[in-house]
Amino acid sequence: MSASKAILLVHMECLFPRVTGNQERVYRMAERLSRDHVVDVATTVLNDGELAASREGLRGVCRAFHPIAPINPTRRPLARKLRRLQFLAVRRLLHHPHQYFYGGHPAVTAQLGDLVRQKRYDVVQVAYWYMARLFEGIGGGAFKAVDTLDVLSDKRRQEIEREHGGRVPARRRRELDRYRDLEIRCLRLADLVIAISGADQRAFADLALGNDTLLVPIGQDLAHFAPAGPAARVDDVVLFYGNMGSLSNRHAFVRLWRDIFPGIRQAVPGARLLVVGANPPESIRRLHDGRNVIVTGYVDDVRPQLARAKVAVIPLEVAGGFRGRAVEMMAMEIPVIGTPRALDCVELTTGVDGIVTDSDAEMAAAAAALLTDDARRRAMGAAARALVTARYSLDATVGVLSEYYRAL
Known about the structure:
Helix content: 40-55%
CATH architecture of the largest domain: 3-Layer(aba) Sandwich
Distance between the termini: 11 Å
CATH superfamily of the largest domain: Glycogen Phosphorylase B
């Protein structure tokens, strides 16, 4: 067997608390790769609280944590405002996205470059295309990988088209073109592009980037997300699960609340709505009444909340990459109902492992049917767990990447 490698995983933001799918992805990458390799993690930290949380959260997960100073630390409010003004000017003149400006800033990549040269890593893996700017300054010693997490230019296109109702003005088209050009330019700096879904892998292949592409969907510790017993699911609870800091998740919740949940309540008058996820805006928090609608906000351990749900509805209109939260719900034997944007990436069989439809009426009817048919709901939940166990364990996903690195 080939020798283990020294690997540096780079992320542009603190990993703790793990409120987003990308934070969970990087954490699980570090956890699983550390079984076969020597792994360090480097992230930016905005303040002492993030620094302490990172050191505590990564203790025992990787060999070392390396904090990187961002260009906008919270302890320097005036500097933050000046950086913001700089970004607005650059965005207006050059159409640079904020992640490219902040995460890929030379002041950030210089720190990372010094770390790479000092530690002499075999592999440097960055999260998202814009962090590949680091590769311009580290020479040819280390193998360079980008964990893309999305075809972000395509997701940006979806967002802008939704914002303008499909009639995108010329200024926004130029912004999209610039975004895509920057993404392609950065991805070409890598030796390996890690795709998170089959659709993403095909998209990267079509770009002919001149490097390797490897499919590594989001994996999860499936023993951690074990099925809940029947006693936990005594009420007709419909789940919405996702970080409300995401605009696409907020839009999806509004669609559920306005266009889908009323149909569920009409068919099942006792149906209740459980909203789990960090950063809910005040407009959603106000819906909480403690019984018919429960809005939890951030919780450190989501499993007791998810265990209460009989079905989950994911009506995303804008999406890319892979829905890691769907894997968590399916692992807990919660049938998932959602749009193609939300669930096509999981490659489930609709009607067996879950239900995929873009019709609000069909989502409402499917949820109501599962709430009132325990045998069918349990069968679909069991099929969902069998699917993710076969395809989306950490060994079946990150384990493939680990073996790729071993073979270098």
